[in-house]
């Protein structure tokens, strides 16, 4: 019989000795207790994995230990499951680990499940009815409140058909995980197999991997290539999110691989100690959670002591949730939207859990209004991939981000990302910049407004100028750091650029510098919209007009006439000052104005020609070279009837602007 593999994993949950392992064996024929001590004591200690065919669909089952001493192992196994089989023994009923396992499943976001009421062969029928009522009352208000409660005997098989039918309905109700995202596996266990080398087992949290791909083991940063794969115990060419998978990577030392490690692809993830999270305290928790409380932190298959720092309030009340920052004693690898659990240190019990938002570099100022506003926006955005991609662009370090930067921060493969970026551009939320970069429309508006403010300030300081040059506007913009740095996002204590810790490094310059391509893209929007105009090669506000008094206007006319009367032997600044009888600083200002108005052309630092002279010189130069094939530099002064003092700088100027090129002492057309 051919079976179809679904990337769905079910998990058992319940108190010790309630028959979880026996139920899995009855269902699958697999003995999930593989350790000698487990078989001797009749108690699961480690996680067990078994393939299970449900109505020609193969899924995975994770059998977790029920003893209170191994709740951390239960959390590791429950992290990757899509649905649960809550196992309750008819003789005991609801017990402490039944309650704690339900809390953990709820906090991990499990939404589907059924209840197996085991050991019905060992109790009278009336006890089965009482246990059923007790369980139904216990499940009221939980995600299992409407789940079927199915009496079954692991020994006699009583009730198996009804249980199997309910299991079929459960599998049908679960949407298989997609293979989207960056491939990542929290490591359950590792061992060595003869002829293969190191085998690492776990349930991929997201993504897909194929034989031959390069993987990296974190935090060891050990790279290796996937040699072979088994899914549900059989050979496969790839592994998908939600499948029980065994990955063969011979380059790794099995003794160096531990539960809590993570397998992924390079560049996207790194171990961190600070995480921004959304935490809910359990409703039935009897005590408030105090700021800086010491807890055990579980995510994926990792466990580490941690400190919980609340935002704003000094305590978190039972049943309430808030944003927190967690400092872990040991770095772990986690990504946006990962679930986590916190438990007390001693005596150990589950306190609460929630979702990871992002890794952060340093502790944030927990009472700063700007910080609180920003993290609330970040928490809201991370809930949906599309919103998070938009947020990543909106908070880019250099106002814009390219596809590689966005991919690294959003933890999204380039192909998946491209579709979302196109959707955001089409929806008017992002603007496309050259080189597959993007800027958010809100950021673009702030930057454009600052550009307008910069031009306005320039006009107020130099009203006689027709406008500001593009290069100067870009330079002046970058000097105004305080106005629009990082799209109004606050700078956190000790923050440095880090892709892995929720920030995209700037592609160039300081965080407030504006890339040239972004600048040109925004100008291309502002000019047609009439927010800026370009006159004489300068940018200006539409309402701006050059302003001069009568004396200034007369001086400008006189100086311009002086240069026009000396086309190829123009006066220097001091000569102008002497002839016009004005101080040198005033002359420099007049020369600048005439240059901005394109009446004079600066050929060298202190050498200006009238625009008419430059045009005439160019015409004669081009005509001569076209007729003669080239021009010896020494002959140019004769064409202009001037001296070498003026001819050579003009030739160099024409070289610089691309009219001619120099070969030895000869000029050729470019």
Oligomer: single chain
Helix content: 25-40%
**Residue ranges: pLDDT <50 for 5 or more in a row?**
30-47, 66-70, 481-499, 504-511
Strand content: 25-35%
Tell me how many strands there are.
34
Q: For the largest beta sheet, what order do the strands appear in spatially?
A: 11-10-16-7-8-15-12-13
The N- to C-terminal Cα distance equals 77 Å
| CA gyration radius, whole angstroms | 36 Å
- Computed structural class: alpha+beta
**What is the residue-averaged pLDDT?**
85
Q: What is the helix tally? A: 19
Could you give a short description of this structure?
This protein is of the alpha+beta class and 670 residues long. Helices cover 34% and strands 27% of the residues.
How would you describe this structure to a colleague?
There is one protein chain. With 670 residues, the protein is α+β, with helices and mostly antiparallel strands. Helices cover 34% and strands 27% of the residues. It contains 19 helices and 34 strands. It has an 8-stranded antiparallel beta sheet with strand order 11-10-16-7-8-15-12-13, with no helix packed on it. It has a 6-stranded mixed beta sheet with strand order 2-3-1-4-5-6, sandwiched between helices. Strand 23 and strand 24 form a beta hairpin. Helix 7 packs antiparallel against helix 8 and helix 14 packs across helix 16.
